[in-house]
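Supplementary Methods, section 5.1.

A reviewer requested that the exact input to the structure prediction be made available. We therefore reproduce it here, unchanged from the version used in the analyses.
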Amino acid sequence: MERMLKVYDGEAKQVAKIPETRLIARYPAFLMVGASEAAKAALSAAWLIEDVTDQFQVQSGDQTIETAIPRTGAAGETLAHPAYKDEQEPPSGPHHYIVQFVGPIKKKWLADVRQAGADLTEPYEGFAVVALLSPPALAKVSKLSSVRWVGHLPYEARMSEHVRRQTDHDLSVKPGPIEPSGRFIDDAYTLQFFYGEQAEHARQPIRDLGFDIVEFTPGSKAMVVRFIGEGAGLRQDRLRKLARIHGVRNLSARPVRRLTSDRASQVMGAEKSLNAPPGLGLSGDGEVIGICDSGLDSGDPKNIHPDFMGRIKVLKSYPIASSYDSYVDNPGHDDGAADVNIGHGTHTAGAIVGDGTASAKLQDLSGRVRGLADRAMLVFQAIEQGLEWKDQKWLDQYGKYVFAGLPLELRTLFDFAYSQGARIHSNSWAGGDTAGYDNDCQIVDQFIWDKPNFCILFSAGNDGTDADNDGVVDLGSVGTPGTAKNCITVGACENARPDVTLTYGERWTDKFKVDPIKSDRVADNASDIAAFSGRGPTTDGRIKPDIVAPGTYILSARSRALPDDIINYGLPKGSNLYMYMCGTSMATPLAAGGVGIVREYLRKVRKIKSPTAALLKAAVIAGAEPVGKNPTPPDNNQGFGRLNIDNVLAPPAPLNTAFIEGSGMNTGDLNERVITVKESGQNLRFVMAYSDFPGPKLVNNLNMVVRDPAGVPHIGNVNANGGFDANNNVELIVIPQAPAGDYRLQVIGANVPRGPQRYALVVIGAIGPAV
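The structure derived from this sequence is encoded token-by-token as follows.
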């Protein structure tokens, strides 16, 4: 079998001399070649190579399409293919096709496809794009020398895993959601289209299939529909037909977004950064941070919890979204911004910007109960609403208070916060298909792509569990939208409160039935990952969460609008203005506060006027330190490690930190710079991060390679993937006890179909004066 290889540093003439080697395409940074196994071994002995054979495979729902087998003939005719044996032929007319190229995508190849009559819709995996092709265009595109394979975009690939399971299972056995109760709205679905006009044209066909359109804004690419027919079998049939409507990009169940509910700054290593000189004296001053959560204290900025007084820029409440109208007796209701349920929003806000005013005189605390960015301004968006459900079963499933104010178009939330000056946005909620990529993920990635200086954080969710009872927390439980590529996803490690005796088995009896987890205390070791914390990988193999922060027994502000008996995990002695809570909900705002002081530092000290989200992400990952059982992250329990702000902003001598905003990259580009290590024996750490083009898998693939003074190459994320990483938009290289000398830091445009792609780099080491 021929292997598809990238050959770095090799000259075309030299490579061509290797027997059984076929030159496919040339790029500035590498050559694309086909080679036998023997030729691969010879090439590997002479140059740095990357085997990308597996990257040409295309995933369709639950199966892999082998693109070495043709689906479309040279004249545009359809050929038999094993991956399409159960796929119904589309009706006549233009349709969306997967167009795969012979290698990493060049701009000229895209231009040639357009010239052949294709409407390029969006990038796809496997060196491919999705294109709208008429029959004549299909025939022309199939003949292009740069095109390797063409096949209709399968309808199964347009359905989320949850919907695919609904169409595969006998729903008469268990009506409603197959996932755990309370994760999705019963019988409601989100439909995404490639174009807004396709959504408009689909309105009548959708109704003809027995669906009501319950939320849709003209011009939008997405809508929420509800099945109103009778019978599980009919619903299965209609869901399949819904996915076949022209222009449907994705069909997923409508999620119910759920909560992911004074020592933390020590655990996160922020004391040097926060303390007055000789510390850095950072406090979030000049930052505006947005929070989307349940509510904030009384809901009145003029009569607010003392810890927020004078620093609320905006407090806005969002009414019940129209997708709930057919389920409730109070459609469109807005009960205001007060935090009246469990105090979730007040607690998360306190962890970011609370200044501890009300805790100054508490006797049993070593210091004020305050967030890291305690001088930042706050834009608060209240989305929790009390629902008057029409049916008791929905009240039992979802509860009275739901984050029902979340609009279908999350962009409206981010747009508002951005317009108010917020450049950091914290979200302690999750739900939907665990490990998947849904409409909200797409919006998160799109917004950061469009506004690269807007940093969004999401919690990893609290769905960590030991379902197989082997004493180890299962993987694949991270919640959406935290599975988006461009946000910072935060998991939870434990806090340092050894006096807390509660165990995971006591608190989560159904999740953790077996030791050692069952008997483990929830807050006794800051180097342990919280058992409930959502784990990666995502369904497409990306590392999540990105980082972890303390998330057990976090003490923060308590809403004064709560009844006296709502104390969650308890109150500190002498005050009902604070309380303890657990969850990735608590870890996320602590991380957001850390991002706030990093951003303040970059603006004030490094004079970077508007740091990108990618640079902020690279910075917090560069400073992260390993926790858990793996001393060499990244992994899918801790991501890249526990947040440590001092490691990146105030590293101990002789270490310094370089912050670099890189230029735009296209396919095959090579950007190289020299990093000089002045003193041997210190660890050298490189992080590259970039905000990728939206899509369920990595679209623009950049690789980081560092060549040490001896010329030995070090590859980003090699510990996680065993070679070049084609899944993640964050890469880490650690060189222990690095010798002095010059290091060539290379960023390579491995495949950039939607460029140019900017990136950010952070380097920590004995590199002389900070860059």
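Confidence is low (pLDDT under 50) at residues 169-182. These observations are discussed further in the main text.
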